[in-house]
Structures are given as structure tokens and as C-alpha cells.
Fold:
Amino acid sequence: MLLPAPPDAVELVVATVVVGRGVFGGRAGDGLAVGCADGASVAATPPDESALDPALVVADPQPPSSTTAAKAMARAGAFRIGASPRSVVPRLTVSARRSFPMVLRSSSFAAYHRVTMEPRLGRSPSTVTQEAPVPDHTAMDAFIRDIPKAELHVHIEGTLEPEMLLELGERNGVELHCASAEECRAAYHFNGLQHFLGLYYAGVEVLVTARDYYELTTAYLRRAHADGARHVEVFFDPQSHTSRGVPFAVVVEGIRRALVDAERQLGVSSGLIMCFQRDRSPASAIIALETARPYRHIIAGVGLDSAEVGHPPREFEDVFRVAREAGFRTVAHAGEEGPAEYITEALDLLKVERIDHGVRAIDDRTLQRRLAREQIPLTMCPLSNLELQVTPDLAQHPLKRLLDAGLRVTVNSDDPAYFDGYLAANYAAVQHALGLTRADVAALARNSITASWLPSARQTKLLAEIDAFVAATS
Ligand code: ES4
Ligand code: ZN
Structure:
């Protein structure tokens, strides 16, 4: 993959690496380090052999976190990286320049990939196999990262990174399915939603105290802020906590305090949405709803999530009616693994204001026309759809077709700790796979604001900030 050289590149450094699923690279001091996300063999060299030792790169078998995090880590110094060889060798070019250290893409580009940099331990063989003009996705990547936007579809329990999972497991004496972050991440390859949900609900068990929920939410908000989020609407799954004996109040208290602190410290506004699990009974959902009633001033709305197929929206018609009567706003996951008819049902029977995912709207032209006419937002999650095999590859994702058909499409991260990337990585992935223009990206950012539940004054302010940002960067 070759890209034009950045105009202000001080120095070109190019290495070709062999890579499995993802790659990272970076320049630190006089050394270039590249590595890849899942153990592929990697080597790198400084541009001048007389400079510092070639960096060694430790492949972190890890999915990406965010561009920002990767860049920050790439600045950390010289690296040592070890890697396990791999026979699959799609080729990929990585470049770096002194002033802007990271450019990274994988051939099966899913997202930016997290890197773990360790202190350099010694020399390693260098293997620069090719030189080429420096790729530069940085302008679009910076545009994506910095454009003001909102995230409207993220499960707070799905932001539990393995490091925190292990830490909280230790702290709360909860036994886990994995003993190291690498081992946890190695298990994050899913054959579908059900497979993922098994690990997701197992992970939730380490969350016990208000402090746990506070730390989890704070870590997410910092990442979202670094990805340009100015507003977030966060899901939580109360039944997954109360069914283990964790009081509803503990969950809400911990999350809420983090949201309040982030608004003050980071300027990120927020809303909280409680999801009913559709693979539990409507009676259980009603109990959750009644438990939430006293928190109506804190919880903006209710949603419907978990295993979709076999659990149609109509089962929750009464629950949603009671919720609406209690003053809660409404959303529902529909058309993720389930059919387009579930989207129609969610609109007609649950009377939801937004559809979470809505991928299968692509199968029903009549439904598409309705969604466009009524400007019902779809909170789409590209990397989630890729990881859960809702779409075979991102090039076939319906996001752009639906955007072009006039639907109010938004981009979100869903369960970023499990699906290879936070908000900006999701934008970058679809931008790359579907060839989105800057105007498309700006439209998605605007949609995220107009689809939010923010008061109109703040919506107007954020839309003006988007316009100013677009004008300033063109
Ligand atoms: C979820 Cl990706 C997804 N789909 C449905 N329910 C969920 N809960 C958490 N992540
Ligand atoms: Zn979701």
C-alpha cells in the first residue's frame, strides 16, 4: 500500500514487514520500530545503519486501541520487540517520519493496532526488504480523530480492556478464563454474537464495587475524548450485575460519578441508557425497569440488547410502553444478526427513536425509504460487525449505501475492548474500506450530533464546531 509522501517529512523511513492481522510501526529517537498485532514476524532498521541500534519490536498479540494511544506509545523511546514467526505473510509497508511518528495500516485493515513497547534490550537483526515513498494517511486520520463528534452506541461493559479485567479479577477474587492480557486477547476471535456474549458476560463478573464501575467508565471516557468525542451516550446492562448480587445503585453510582467528572474535566457531555437483555424474560426486564424508576433523572433512556435471533422486539412491547410512560427515551438493537423485520417491529411496536446497528435494513428498500423519510438514526458499529461476522469484510458493509440513500447513519464502537478499536478506529476503518470522502466523514459526525439526545443548544454549538473544523482543515 503506497501513499504520497507527506510534504513536510523530514526523513523517510520505510520498512516492509510481514504481517498477520495488523501492524504497527513508529519512530523513536533514531530507531524505527515496527511490529504487528498478532505475533507476525517483524523487523526494522534505522535509515542510517550508523545510527542507533535497529529497534527490536515486540509484537503485542493485541488488537488496536486507538491511533492516539499507538502514537503516544510509539514516542516512548527505543523499543525492543520480539515476535513469533508466522507463515502467512501478506506484505505491508510501514513508514514513519521524525515529526509525525506513526502511520499504520494492515492489509486486512480493521483498525489501528495497539502496541506494547518495551525498553530496548540489545541488537536485533534488521530486515528492511524494500524502500518506497512514504505512505501518508495522516491527514485523513487526523481529520477523523479531531472532528467533533458523538458516540451513541457503546456498552460500558464492552470497554473492559484485558488489563483492567485482570486487575479487577485479582482485586475482587474472581477467577478468569485467562491469566494474561495476551491470553485474554488471543480468545477475542468470534464466530458470531452468541460466541462473543459468552466472553462479554464472563468479563462483567469482575465488576463489583462502585469504584470498579467508576474506573471502567473513566478509562473509556479518556479514550473517547482522545478520539474526538464531545458527547457520549453509554449503555449498561443492569441485569448482568443485579443477577450477581451487585446492587443497581452501586452500578449507577459508579458510572454516573465518572460521567460527571469527565464532563467537568474533559468537557465530554454524556447520557446513560439502560439496556434490557432480550435473552432474559420480559418479566425480568420489568423488574429492572421498576428498579430504575427512581433514577429517571440519571438514566435518559432504555434499550434492548444481547442475543437477537429468536428474541424479537414484540416480546418487549409492554416493557417499552411502561418505560415510555415513565418518561424514558427508547432505542433498540435490531437488524444486527436478526432480520430487517425486527427493525420494523422495533419501530412499530417498541416505538424506538433510534435503531442500534440496523445493518439488515440493506435487505428492505421499503424500510430504507421509511428510515430516510423519518430520519431514524442508525447507530452502526463497523468493527463490531466485522468481528462478529455480521459482514464478511468491511468493503461489503452497507454503511455507505445507506448513507447515500439518505439515512441518518452514525459510526460507533459497540464493545471496543473486544472489537479492535474505539471511535476513531471505527471511522478510519470504514473510511478506508468504503473510500469515504471528507464530506462523508463530516456527514457522519454531524449525524452523530443530530441523532443524539443533547439539548438543541448544545447540538447547534457542536454542529457549528464541526463546520468551523471542516472549514479550517480544507
Ligand atoms: C452487544 Cl455487539 C452486541 N450486540 C448485542 N448486544 C450486545 N451487548 C453487548 N454487546
Ligand atoms: Zn451494541
